[in-house]
Write a structure and sequence with these properties.
Length: 314
């Protein structure tokens, strides 16, 4: 048991470290190819933050543990919306950009509702996955189109300084990062499955808690620090973007490669994910800000949901 728990931690570290290295290398290669900074940020960097969830869900589905794959996504979205936004808002009220409220959150709501409806028959078919992936391509097209309009406005043109790597260094980072992602995901999924079996806990519960929490920890730390520095608009935008990608990209890609039959993800799990994003959307309309008390509500609701999961185990 102790060895498997240590392997879970090792798997998380490898996956997160690998995602960072792969993202750094990909960004460097994109810069060498003269790809605009805004496009790099909205594609490579944004997807890089979702690579841990993508790899773990993909490996889980291929190894025959689809509840772990879907539980990872559902749990991560609940963590993102309730715990990360909730805690960050309690640290400092979080400002939300109008574009996030009007364009990004509706996509997160759509993804949550779509996934909930698709899971009613306990199957995510290849057709379901294609629909989700098609929605992801539309989302990215509209996001890039909007970003290019903003980039053409001189007042919003802010290029960031980034590390410069040679092509050899960048390629090495991508290869090493990808290797760590694959190796870490395999270690993580195998260890998490063994822990679930030894404790008599369902793979869905492990996915909704340990897996989801582990892959969401970087976002939690980043969002809390950003809130304290007064950069909450960017932090919450990244959280919402992560929610959209988790469902549309990760479930879409995973389901296309390996259609999934799920049995342990309950309507309460899916309902909590959907209600949480609706609640955040509602809070967002109040002066485009999540106040401390609203953050406390989200955090308390997360505590209630987590208590329910623990009760299911007991």
């Amino acid at each position: 048991m102790i060895l498997n728990l240590l392997l879970i931690v090792l798997g998380i570290v490898l996956v997160i470290w690998g995602a960072d290295r792969m993202t750094d290398g990909s960004v460097a290669i994109a810069q060498r190819l003269k790809i605009p900074q805004i496009v790099i940020g909205l594609t490579i960097v944004a997807m890089g933050t979702s690579m841990p969830e993508l790899c773990i869900s993909m490996v889980s589905a291929l190894k025959g543990t689809p509840d772990l794959a879907v539980g990872n996504v559902v749990g991560s979205n609940i963590f993102n919306t309730m715990l990360i936004v909730g805690v960050a808002a309690m640290v400092a009220p979080m400002t939300i950009l109008r574009s996030t409220v009007k364009k990004d959150i509706p996509w997160a709501v759509f993804g949550s509702v779509a996934l909930m409806l698709m899971c009613l028959d306990n199957d995510i078919s290849r057709i379901d996955a294609i629909i989700l992936f098609a929605a992801f391509t539309i989302f990215m097209f509209l996001t890039l189109k909007n970003a290019k309009k903003k980039q053409s406005d001189p007042s919003s043109n802010t290029e960031e300084e980034v590390k410069s790597h040679s092509i050899l260094q960048a390629t090495t980072l991508v290869i090493v990062g990808l290797a760590c992602l694959i190796f870490g995901s395999n270690i993580f999924v195998d260890a998490a499955t063994k822990v679930a079996q030894s404790l008599g806990v369902s793979e869905a519960i492990i996915g909704l808690t340990i897996v989801a929490g582990g892959t969401s920890l970087p976002e939690l730390a980043t969002s809390v620090v950003a809130a304290r520095k007064g950069q909450s608009a960017i932090a919450i935008g990244n959280v919402i973007g992560s929610n959209v990608m988790n469902i549309l990209l990760i479930i879409g890609t995973t389901g296309i490669i390996c259609p999934m039959h799920i049995s342990g993800i309950t309507p309460i799990d899916l309902g909590t994910m959907t209600i949480s994003i609706f609640l955040l959307w509602l809070f967002s309309f109040t002066r485009f800000k999540v106040e401390r008390w609203e953050g406390a509500v989200l955090t308390i609701l997360f505590g209630i949901y987590l208590s329910w999961l623990i009760y299911q185990v007991i």
